[in-house]
């Protein structure tokens, strides 16, 4: 039986499953992994299995069926959308309560890398982009330190439930995010191009925002339907629905981040967990 690793650290040697989208960003993710990431992993005694995703939701399907006990962490190399797939795939598993505690690592290789940039900032590194950001995040994986991270659960008026680790946007921001997909080959500049096109043809968005102050008991009434067939962007992924309700679950999953040790104890989660999917 292997010795138990401290809750705030990955073991040494470490086994990592790497999910990589070869079409992410400018289509250079695989080349960057081989030239920038792989040498660091080998030097840090991190063994890995690399899987290239082939279609939308492929990563989601893979983590639903994967034997997670073979791996100490899951590394996702692409933009924010692939991490969204992985988290939702973990939450769809029958053993989701255990699966969602598998440490996750974000390796930026897409056009939108906001999660990796946030982790980089949280770790105390200077703000960087592109290959410098990728190297920083790779070094965080090599350092093996873990930090807890919040999970946002979203409910739609139609009954759909999904999970987010980054953002929920609606209106102008969601339109720019989703409509700029056609410019993916431009890399992160696609968002600037998309913004100019949307500014040139502004739309009017009608909706209603409601919130509960901290400590208020949640209402049992269904979500408002005043947002008619709204287009939302969840971690960069498209969602069309009438209304959305969200709840934040503090410290619910583990992210590879070299900033600080995780809280002591085997279960550091605070607050009620999400209902079973």
Automatic annotation (TrEMBL):
Superkingdom of the source species: Eukaryota
PROSITE patterns documented for this protein: DAGK
InterPro entries: ATP-NAD_kinase_N, Diacylglycerol_kinase_cat_dom, Lipid_Phosphate_FormReg, NAD/diacylglycerol_kinase_sf
SUPFAM superfamilies: NAD kinase/diacylglycerol kinase-like
Subcellular localization(s) per the UniProt record: Endomembrane system
One Gene Ontology MF term: ATP binding
Protein name, as recorded: sphingosine kinase
Keywords of this entry: ATP-binding, Kinase, Membrane, Nucleotide-binding, Transferase
């Amino acid at each position: 039986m292997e010795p138990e690793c401290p809750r705030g650290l990955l073991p040494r040697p470490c086994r990592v499953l790497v999910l990589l989208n070869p079409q992410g960003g400018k289509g250079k993710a695989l080349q960057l992994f081989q030239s920038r990431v792989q040498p660091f992993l080998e030097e840090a005694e991190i063994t890995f299995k690399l899987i290239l995703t082939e279609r939308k939701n492929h990563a989601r399907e893979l983590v639903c069926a994967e034997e997670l006990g073979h791996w100490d962490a899951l590394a996702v190399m692409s933009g924010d959308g692939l991490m969204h797939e992985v988290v939702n795939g973990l939450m769809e598993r029958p053993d989701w309560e255990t699966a969602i505690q598998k440490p996750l690592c974000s390796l930026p290789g897409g056009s939108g890398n906001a999660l990796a940039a946030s982790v980089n900032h949280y770790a105390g590194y200077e703000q960087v982009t592109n290959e410098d950001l990728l190297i920083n995040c790779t070094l965080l994986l090599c350092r093996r330190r873990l930090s807890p991270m919040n999970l946002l659960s979203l409910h739609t008026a139609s009954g759909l439930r999904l999970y987010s680790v980054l953002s929920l946007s609606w209106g102008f921001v969601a339109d720019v995010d989703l409509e700029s997909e056609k410019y993916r080959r431009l890399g992160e500049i696609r968002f600037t191009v998309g913004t100019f096109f949307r500014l040139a043809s502004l739309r009017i968005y009608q909706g209603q925002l409601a919130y509960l102050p901290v400590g208020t008991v949640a209402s049992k009434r269904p979500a408002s339907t005043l947002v008619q067939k709204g287009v939302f962007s969840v971690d960069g992924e498209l969602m069309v629905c009438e209304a959305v309700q969200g709840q934040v679950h503090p410290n619910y999953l583990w992210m590879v981040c070299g900033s600080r040790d995780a809280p002591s104890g085997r279960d550091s989660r605070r607050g009620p967990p999400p209902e079973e999917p």
